[in-house]
Write a structure and sequence with these properties.
This protein is an alpha/beta fold and 371 residues long. Helices cover 41% and strands 15% of the residues. It starts with a helix and ends in a 5-residue tail after the last helix.
């Protein structure tokens, strides 16, 4: 029995990495998050079509996890291409096409394109080496991206934990948890580290319509870890804040513009507006890999549009809107303006407005070495 089968039998998602490379079978291994929380099913993917579909259909989701999955995916593509292309030019042409193919799966999460670009740099830098050595270097880079994600999330957790105190009520939107990364999560990293240290947080997860990532995923993983978790509908957030139940908000993000505008799961901006009204600190947990200095403001972030069925029929036995004559607006993300954000928690510390200058300082520190 394989390790993955054992985990399925024990019905736990907390004792393994969300995204993994199975070197023996040359496969990307993920949990199918569309089946949670009712079924834990591990997927072992080798074909590029299946890896792209897993990203598009949210079987693997969350910006950091998508980035790691993409890195492993293009490494596996390189292995397959090298079997028939031993000269560099033909190998690179096919490899570049494979990267573009994966990159088209989801346009908003910057980690997808970031990981693919980083992996392609390995190919370009080693153009004078044999193709088989380039493939080995891609393997090592994919593992490096995975290991960095773990270190980054733990550092974000330490930095975020310094912003709150034991017993606080913490709200999070969507799922920026372990299921969205390799371990710890981004927005949930302070919760995991605080839980280990006996902080006894009260965690509030809003449903996050229409895909219910908060209700299905965040509440599932945090309650499985033994935390005190309460689920509330998205339109109940302001009521909870008004009653003083929430002392801080931690959310993840899929892309941060140079001015600090942040794209995250649809509904995040509404949480930020309510937090501003009731004086609740609103923190965005952002690995530096999600900061895109090439985009000046949130207006330049491309917002993914999803299928109307996610709103009308996905969770219902019968359609919840008329079959004809009614349109559906279903953006996957919205942009939270920088002036609504109390601070952005990175692996190098918490930064505050003006964000463009703060990000430049962060990147200069990043160039100096590891976390």
């Amino acid at each position: 029995m394989s390790d993955y089968q054992i985990l399925q039998k024990e019905r736990t998602v907390l004792d393994y990495d969300t995204v993994a490379l199975d070197d023996r079978n040359h496969a990307l291994v993920i949990i199918d998050q569309t089946k949670l929380p009712n079924q834990i099913e591990m997927l072992s993917l080798t074909r590029q079509e299946d890896i792209r579909e897993a990203i598009y259909l949210l079987k693997v989701r969350g910006a950091p996890a998508i980035g790691v999955a993409a890195a492993i995916g293009v490494y596996l593509a390189a292995r397959q291409i090298a079997a028939s292309c031993q000269d560099y030019d033909s190998f690179y042409k096919a490899y570049h096409e494979a990267g573009n193919y994966l990159n088209e799966a989801r346009p908003t999460a910057v980690n997808l394109s970031w990981a693919i670009r980083r992996m392609e740099q390995i190919v370009l830098q080693r153009k004078n080496e044999p193709v088989n050595r380039i493939v080995l270097a891609l393997h090592d880079e994919a593992i490096a991206i995975r290991d960095e994600d773990i270190r980054v999330c733990e550092a974000i957790g330490r930095n975020g934990l310094a912003l709150v105190k034991p017993g606080d009520g913490l709200l999070t939107h969507c799922n920026a948890g372990q299921l969205a990364t390799v371990r710890y999560g981004t927005a949930t990293a302070p919760m995991y580290l605080g839980h280990k240290s006996g902080y006894h947080f009260r965690i509030f997860c809003d449903e996050t319509r229409p895909l219910l990532q908060g209700a299905r995923l965040t509440s599932f993983e945090l309650s499985s870890a033994g935390m005190d978790v309460t689920v509330l509908c998205d339109n109940m957030v302001s009521a909870a804040m008004r009653e003083g139940k929430i002392q801080a908000v931690f959310v993840g993000c899929d892309r941060v513009a140079a001015n600090g505008d942040t794209a995250n799961k649809i509904g995040t901006s509404m949480v930020a507006l309510a937090a501003r009204r009731y004086g609740v600190p609103f923190y965005v947990c952002a690995p530096t890999s999600t900061i895109d200095m090439s985009i000046e403001t949130g207006d330049g972030i491309k917002i993914e549009q999803r299928k109307p069925e996610e709103v009308t029929t996905m969770w219902y036995k019968e359609p919840m809107v008329p079959r004809t004559g009614v349109k559906v607006f279903n953006p996957a993300f919205d942009v939270t303006d920088a002036d609504l954000i109390t601070g952005i928690v990175t692996e190098y510390g918490v930064v505050h407005a003006p964000y463009k200058a703060a990000f430049r300082d962060i990147f200069s520190r990043k160039e100096g070495g590891q976390i």
